[in-house]
Structure formats: C-alpha cells, structure tokens
Amino acid sequence: MKIAIIGFGQIGKTLVAKLSAAGHEVKVANSRGPETIADEAARLGARAMTAAQAVEGADAVILSVPPTSIAEAAPIIAGLPATTVVIDTSNYYPFRDGAITALDDGVPESVWVSDQLGHPIVKAWNAVLSHTLAHNGKPEGAEGRIAVPVAGDDPAGKALTSQLVSATGFDPVDAGSLSESWRQQPGNPAYCTELSAQALKLALAQADAARAGGRRDAIIKALMGRQVPPSHEEVVAANRAMTAGD
Length: 246
Description:
By secondary structure, this protein is α/β, with parallel strands linked by helices. It has helices spanning 10-21, 38-43, 51-55, 70-78, 94-97, 101-104, 109-117, 130-135, 155-167, 197-205, 209-224, 232-243; strands at 2-6, 25-29, 47-48, 60-63, 85-88, 122-123, 147-152, 171-174. It has a single domain, classed as 3-Layer(aba) Sandwich (Rossmann fold). The chain contains twelve helices and eight strands. It has an eight-stranded mixed β-sheet with strand order 3-2-1-4-5-6-7-8, sandwiched between helices. Strand 1 (2-6), helix 1 and strand 2 (25-29) form a beta-alpha-beta unit.
C-alpha cells in the first residue's frame, strides 16, 4: 500500500517505522522541508518529500499534526480524490493549542478536522501514547494485545485503517461514526488507558461528553504539576484513575 504521513513527531516517526517494516511504501513530510528529515526517514525505511509530493497517488494519508497545523494541510488534502483515505491522529489540548471555540463548544475534534480539510477522515491512533505505540505492540492474536479505537463514516476507509492499525501491533476496535469519535478523545476512559478490545468497547460506551474536557484538563494539571516527570506507567494509571466512573 502507498502511504503518506504528514508530521514527523513521535507518533509520526513511529508510524513511519512500523508501516515501512510491514512492507508498505511510505512517504513522509514535515513543515520544515524534506531535507531536514531525509536521513532519518531513510533509516526508518521511508522517503522524505514535500507534503504535496507525498500525498500524490497515496492510498492513505495519515495526518500526525496538532489541530493548529490542520489549516496548513487543508489545501493539499482538499484536492485529493474522494477515495483516498485520510486518517487523523490529532488531539486537542487547549493549554498547547490555544482555545478553539467549536471544540470547546462540543464539536467532536475529528468532525472539526474533517470540516477544515474539506475531506472525510477516519480517526485512529489518537488514543494511544507515543511510548505505547512504539514499544507495546504485539503480533495479531497475541495475549494481552492492546486495542485502538477507529471511528469514521466510510466502511471501506475504516477497514483500510483497521488493517494498518493491526500492522502496527494493535487490535482495531470499531468506535462508530465520526460524530461518535468524541468517545476516544482525551478525558474519556478509552483514551490512553491501554485496554484489551473487550475492555475498550466498554470504555467507549462509558464515555461522558459533559465531563471529558474537565477530566482532560485535570489529568494534564496533575501530571505537569509533578516535580519529577511521570513515567509512562504513571501516565496510563492517571488516565485510568481520573476517567473512571464515580
């Protein structure tokens, strides 16, 4: 499969490495130009290009950028064929991104992203920590395999995305339509809690839209307020404890 990845942060790099290793043809782009990542991309099995070059002929385009960078990608994504699957991995954090009124008013993050791009999208890999994605994947059928929610409106797009999620070492779980993708946003029980497929389905059902934003901000405040940076295990534990039902 031909895959374009826009964004070369921790999530983007890991997806480049894993999908290249799985045999896919991967092209990657960042905001600073291909020459700034060419060597590292090559070591990971991919080719660095401009975003416009990377998406040309791609079967799937993965956006691994924060919400504040979506506008930069919009002109490129809007020109893609309707059949190109666009996958959004982003999460909204007001302390980092600044206030986005529509998201603060409850519009699901990926619905907003799709509107900005002018192209339908699938939501995936947003509800997993970068460490989890890089180190905790397992082969299909392995005991203790962590699940990742996949939301979207196009069955074919979700099926392709689920195939890629499995290739990165995780069980894909159908999380419903894009309008339901708020269930896998920060502050909900499905977000960064490293659950099995069965447990993840229950967590998605237990999501609380009214409380998610407050819980998201409380988790960040608790983790950033520590004198010693929290370990990966402590971040997972905090997400589990602070999104559990009362």
